[in-house]
């Protein structure tokens, strides 16, 4: 088990005209992290920096942080420090800075980025989670009611669904939930395969 966030959290910190907007996102892959960062840059064309930190995986070994042009260790490291302080993983926290015309100094920047990140985490819903496996389910229309009832009764998440030509679901299933796979495989017309790398 590990701690993560269930939803997006936002925070804001203002200092000497500069504004720091913190955004915390639940994330499971570097691809999703890049999508969030690219979107933030597009949505904030007037900002001067989008500094960030992320941590992925239950062992918390996959992490990175960026100062995005701010003085070394004045932004990314304090943001990452909040991930560690809240003991979270599978998260991205980005802080978008709008410059107010007055330099804050390294100490002022550290405080600003740390505070915006902290507030974003405080406004997110922190939950306990566990490692998950992504599986693809294909099934017949006849099996659909049984499949949907089984999925709804479990603690898995539907990531994608397609009911056009042949029904298909992509699910995120907790690794401890072996029973779900056994239940689904017992339904006639159901095929399951892992889509994890």
Please provide a written account of the structure:
The protein has about 200 residues and is an alpha+beta fold. It has 2 domains: about 1-130, Ribosomal Protein S5, domain 2 (2-Layer Sandwich); about 130-195, ACT-like. Chain A, domain 2 (Alpha-Beta Plaits, 2-Layer Sandwich), CATH 3.30.70. The protein contains 5 helices and 11 strands, in the order E-E-E-H-E-E-H-E-H-E-E-H-E-E-H-E. It has helices at about 30-45, 75-85, 105-120, 145-150, 180-185, and strands at about 1-5, 10-15, 20-25, 50-55, 60-65, 90-100, 125-130, 130-140, 155-160, 170-175, 190-195. The strands form 3 sheets. The chain has a 5-stranded antiparallel beta sheet with strand order 2-3-6-4-5, sandwiched between helices. Strands 9-10-8-11 form a 4-stranded antiparallel beta sheet, covered by helices on one side. A hairpin with a 5-residue loop joins strand 4 and strand 5 (about 60-65). Helix 2 (about 75-85) runs parallel beside helix 3 (about 105-120).
Provide key terms for this protein:
four-stranded antiparallel β-sheet; single chain; alpha+beta; Ribosomal Protein S5, domain 2; 11 strands; five-stranded antiparallel β-sheet; Alpha-Beta Plaits; 197 residues
